[in-house]
Amino acid sequence: MVSGRFPILELRGLTKRFGELAAVDAVDLDILEGEFFTIVGPSGSGKTTVLRMLAGMESPSSGDILLKGERINDVPANRRPTCMVFQSLALFPHRTVGQNIEFALKIRGDAAASRRARAFELMDLLRLPRSYYKRGVTQISGGERQRVALARAFAYDPQILFFDEPLSAIDYKLRKTLEKELKDIHRETGKTFVYITHSLEEAMVMSDRIGVMRAGRLVQVGTPHEIYTEPRDKFVSEFMGEVNVIDVVADADGLLFAEAFGTRLTAPAHRRGFQKGHLVIRPESLRFLERPEQAENRFEGTLYNEYVLGSRIQYQVRVGEHVFAVERLRQHAFGGRLDDRVLIGWNAVDSILVEE
Amino acid sequence: MVAAAERSAQPAAATPARPRSSLGFRYSLPVLLLLAVGFIAPLVAVIAFSFVEPRSFDLWSEPTLANYRTIFEQTYYRSFLWSLAFAALTVVVLAVICYPVAYGLARVFGRWSNLVTLLFVLPLFISENVRLYGWVLFLIKGGVLLGGVKALTGIELTSILFTPPMIVFGMVYVYLPFMLFPMTLGLSMVPREVTEAAFDLGASRAQVFREVELPLAMPGIIIGALLTFVLGVGAIVEAKVLGGQSVIPITHDIEIAFTYAQNWPLGAALSVLLMLVVGVLVLIVLKRFDLDRILGRR
Question: What's the CA gap between B99 and B209, in Å, rounded?
Answer without folding.
Answer: 11
